[in-house]
Amino acid sequence: MALQSEKMKTSHLLLAIAGVAALLLFPIGIDNPYYIHLLETIMIYAIVLFGLDIVVGYTGQVSLGHAGLFGLGAYAAGVLVFKLAAPFWITVPVAILFTAGFGALLALPALRVSGPYLAMVTLAFGTIIQILINEMSFLTEGPMGIKLDKPSLLGHKLDEREFYWVVVVLMVLALVVVHRILRSHLGRAFEALRGSPVASDCMGVSVYRYKVYAFVISAGFAGLAGCLYAYSEQYISPNSYNFELTVLFLLAVIMGGRKSRIGSLLGAAIIVLLPKLLDDVVLFRYVSVVLAVLVLVTAAVAIRRERATPAQMAIPVVGSIALAALAFWLDTMTDWRLSIFGVIMLFVVYYLQDGIVGFVRKAFNMRRPVVQLPPTVEGVAPTDAVATAAHAGGSAEVLQASGVLMQFGGLKALNNVDLSIRRGTIHGLIGPNGSGKSTMMNVLTGIYVPTAGAISFAGRSLVGRTSSDIALSGIARTFQNVQLFGEMTALQNVQVGLHHTFASNLFDVAVHTPRYRRESDAAVSRALGLLNFVGLGEFVAEEARNLPYGKQRLLEIARALALDPQLLLLDEPAAGLTAPDIKELIAIIRKIRDHGITVILIEHHMDVVMSMCDTVSVLDFGQKIAEGEPAKVQADEKVIEAYLGGSTAT
Ligand code: ADP
Ligand code: MG
């Protein structure tokens, strides 16, 4: 596997070098200002899309404010040049920082909401920016717009071609930086919060904070692009940064393919070239025929390799052939431009939800190269991968809850529950369905704030603290209904749990400082060790959603252990497992306890509970009805009565 990925890396590198060389040589080969400018615009849009993809593709949020942010970048540069004759090396960083600041301004309040509300808020934000630019004529010259020249570098005024080269360099730089961010712990945090927000928070990755980060970074790229756009067009006016552009950006990310830099480049090329293409019927005929042939070949390959059925491929094939036929049937495009544009958009959004890159990947069975093990990395030995819980002095009790009340409307899911967990033990929490066991875990991990009661963990109160804060203080958990980051590999899932081991900031990530390399390599080794610890060594590169159910539960445990917890909460870890799997699970839980980690175990399988637990607490209708050694509890009359109600306990 390692060898293959090395080979792939080299071929990717060669392709990338060839691509950059082609971009750099383009204006020498084709000395036509029109085409140079076209390509320049594509690259500038691509920079916006790299950033937008972080928000849309990775965190799964919607932004309709990116045209506004792009406009802010353009105006930051325009006003600086117009009012202060600022040089290029000033306008670029200022535009980036200024726009990133506005990104934070947008994100802080907006990200409290999500879905359609977030779309509305970002849309309003974009509109307000456009209106402000229009109204603040003392600064922006209002609707008149601002004219500016190409910038100078080192005292030399750049001509069209030279500025094009500057754009190439900055685009490649942006691409590398975005790529590095997304491959780092930051990118994993972004992806995780899309996969499962609740699990992210419980792994110490604050969903809210990383959503804001994503917006700020994304805005920074929009700012850079806006700044370059101002110089490229040499004229900016408020109308350029309208609603249409924002929708176009969004479509470009989706069409090109989310979570892909090539997708962003493709998307940018499409939104720049498609309108031009629809102006010229002869060119449109050529391109539609080429497109039809390409789709046909891709579909044929996909069907032969049994990656898709003929029925699935019928509509793309028929659609692209119909488009080509239409092109020959029409004499002029003028009347049809918008309709064709609309139909193509609809078709893509409806049919290519993973974008063009996703479609091609699926057809050719290419997997995302997600696992790149650094050649120097060796896995930490499984048992060393689990950190021994720190016994920082303190009392014999690691967790103490008293009088916990959790009320949902009229229902008391937890009613005056006391719980005292001794350090280093396995504490069972049992009770019939709906008795409040999971609610207790949610209260302990900050997902619910108890209506009343006190909880202290390692000497500090937990009540009112955020889930991520509680997680970082040493409580890890798994979920009754598995909460993995489905699109991420097993390795990446565990790496999210190791997020707390990174001190690297954006700069470290962007330039790959020694600190980042060290932390990153260490995290890979630890993650491999943890996967081996739960016996998932062979599934390292498998996407979590493709794992068998039992393995998914084990992966959750490995991820939770990555947090280096003092207390581990397991919510029905054996549910849905086969008998041999359960045996394996019991062995793993014992090993975890041997590392000094305290375990609270919710379980329906009585044999598991009885064989492992040091103490058992029994809940019924939200109240604790019994507590003590397993054998004693099992014989308790109240407990037997509670269970006769028809639970699956055996
Ligand atoms: P279990 O012991 O099976 O894990 P739970 O803790 O999941 O039980 O649920 C206890 C009770 O609290 C159930 O009646 C459940 O319907 C209710 N409950 C749990 N979460 C909520 C919620 N968010 N809103 C309303 N009721 C809830
Ligand atoms: Mg439950």
How would you sum up this structure, described in words?
This protein is an alpha/beta fold. The chain has two domains: 33-241, no CATH class; 395-646, P-loop containing nucleotide triphosphate hydrolases (Rossmann fold), CATH 3.40.50. It contains 27 helices and 14 strands. The chain has a six-stranded mixed sheet with strand order 10-11-12-7-13-14, with helices on both faces. Strand 5 (397-408) and strand 6 (411-422) form a beta hairpin. Helix 2 (33-58) packs across helix 8 and helix 20 packs parallel to helix 23 (549-562). The two termini are 45 Å apart. The model has no long low-confidence stretch (mean pLDDT 87). The protein binds adenosine-5'-diphosphate and magnesium ion (MG).
